[in-house]
Amino acid sequence: MKNTALITGASSGIGKELARIHASKGGDLILVARRIELLNSLKEELVQKYNVTVEVIQKDLSVLGSSQAVYDEVTQNGWQVDYLFNNAGFGGKGAFLDRDLEADVEMVRLNVMALLKLTHLFGKDMKARGKGKILQTASTAGFLPGPYQNTYFATKAFVVSHTQGLAHELKGTGVSVTALCPGPVETEFAKVAGFGGSKMFDGAASAFKTALKGYNAMEKGKVICISDFKFTFLIKGMLPFMPSRITAAIIAKMQQS
Ligand SMILES: NC(=O)c1ccc[n+]([C@@H]2O[C@H](COP(=O)([O-])OP(=O)(O)OC[C@H]3O[C@@H](n4cnc5c(N)ncnc54)[C@H](OP(=O)(O)O)[C@@H]3O)[C@@H](O)[C@H]2O)c1
Q: Most buried among 10, 80, 195, 230, by the most CB within 10 A?
């Protein structure tokens, strides 16, 4: 395999578009998610259209030990991961104390622990080779307090912070790490998180445009990519001057719309 990208959450949304973009550049792929039939149909599409090599791994990454199992399968097959896209993730609506804690713990295992483990395993190999690129799908939520989707916002704050620190540590190694921070995007995310029909997703960005911005930012070695310009001013220009209780009140209203 050559110029190989491993993409988690490749069965739909942003991950699926990242796979299409990478394949369109002639790169090979390892696609990871739970829904194997969706991975196989994407594989068929990409092999036919771009004549690339595509492998699929069916894995629930919220299960303890699953990221190690993915790494073991990759290395045992002799595949080299040149690009790592830590993209799988989900959210969940509701007041923290009223939510099923197990669902939030599963969210932390996927959005944080799987990302951390895969970055550690594949990042070490990349550093040893002096070459590699990592794209972490975070969110604009990572810059904000998140009442009524509190654990999700906190997982993305972890990803933003971890990426910023790691990017510094990786300077001069030939390995880069980028956090893609979208606002609302048209994918299965809203339905899975319990926001079906919510006004918050009116005018959501397309998954393709979001993935392309992230991919290009990763290629340039940028650390943070806020993919929707509407949020760039909010996050960089306004947020630093707003008291966090006001920001929290605005976010609470948006989550309940
Ligand atoms: N859409 C938005 O508004 C938005 C905004 C900011 C950030 N994001 C972030 O973007 C990333 C991609 O989400 P999306 O918007 O493209 O939503 P999506 O269409 O729901 O895609 C989520 C992907 O994650 C995979 N996934 C979920 N649980 C998994 C598990 N336990 N193990 C392995 N894979 C799992 C899903 O595949 P299977 O179900 O087949 O496993 C799917 O491929 C997420 O990290 C999300 O937090 C989304």
A: 10
Question: What mean pLDDT is predicted for residues 1-18?
Answer: 98
Residue 34 phi/psi, 5-degree rounding, is -90, -35
pLDDT tens digits for range 182-206? 999 999 999 999 998 888 999 999 9
pLDDT tens sequence across 29-44: 999 999 999 999 999 9
Helix axes 36-50, 13-24, angle to 10 degrees: 20
Q: Which atom of ligand 1 is nearest to the CA of 141?
A: 6
Encode 1-27: b = buried (16+ Cβ within 10 Å), e = exposed.
beebbbbbbbbbbbbbbbbbbbbeeeb
Q: In the prediction, which pLDDT does 196 show?
A: 87
Task: Sheet with 224-226: list strands edge to edge.
Answer: 54-58, 29-33, 5-8, 83-86, 132-137, 175-181, 224-226
Residues 97-132: tens digit of each pLDDT:
999 999 999 999 999 999 999 999 999 999 999 999
- Residue whose CA is closest, atom 10 of ligand 1? 137
pLDDT at 111: 98
Which SS3 state, helix, strand or coil, does residue 108 take?
Answer: helix
Active site residue 152: yes
Of the residues 71, 148, 152, 215, only one is catalytic, namely: 152
Q: How far is the CA of 89 from the centre of ligand 1 (A)?
A: 4
> What token pair was written down for 97?
């104390």
Topology given in CATH for the domain delimited by 5-255: Rossmann fold (3.40.50)
Name the residue of 38, 159, 185 whose CB sits within 8 Å of the most ligand 1 atoms, as the mutation to test its pocket: 185
